[in-house]
Design brief:
153 residues, alpha+beta, Rieske Iron-sulfur Protein, 5-stranded mixed sheet, 4-stranded antiparallel sheet, 12 strands, 14% helix, 30% strand, globular
């Protein structure tokens, strides 16, 4: 205990408690962080993502957020089973908030709409699926995403 006029002392128990809280806060922040957005160039309305350069997409369950230069919102890209891919707008179809990836779901932080990784509504208030972009894997393991033909719903 410190005396009046002295600096408060940090005993061992309090020091360990402060360290534990700092560690927990850092771990929580990192665990809840959104995907890092990778900026990419589009060519003739297409994104070309070589899987060698995007290892996040080489395994089912992988995900990536890309921001095509000149577009306002990023695109979420998900690797599904059997080398299928989905490219989705992260803009909730309810009121336009940006959804967050939480495990195998995309959840709107504004009103709780929940989507699966293919953009289908699992829980409202949203009634329409997330906008999707055609995504095709070429023979050379390049994922092509058509930006000009996003689905309306």
């Amino acid at each position: 205990m410190s005396m009046p006029g002295e600096e408060p002392r940090l005993d061992r128990r309090r020091f360990l408690g402060v360290c534990a809280c700092a560690f927990a806060g850092t771990a929580l922040a990192n665990g809840c962080a959104s995907l890092a957005i990778r900026h990419v160039e589009s060519v003739n309305g297409r994104l070309m993502l070589p899987l060698l350069q995007y290892p996040e997409l080489t395994e089912a369950g992988g995900s990536l957020a890309v921001a095509p230069r000149g577009q306002d919102a990023p695109i979420f890209v998900f690797a599904l089973v059997e080398r299928r891919f989905v490219a989705l707008s992260p803009i909730c179809t309810h009121l336009g908030c940006t959804v967050e990836i939480q495990g195998d779901r995309l959840i709107c932080p504004c009103h709780g709409s929940t989507y699966d990784r293919e953009g289908r509504v699992l829980r409202g208030p949203a009634e329409r699926a997330l906008h999707s972009y055609p995504a095709t894997l070429t023979r050379g393991d390049i994922l092509e995403i058509e930006l000009t033909s996003a689905s309306p719903d």
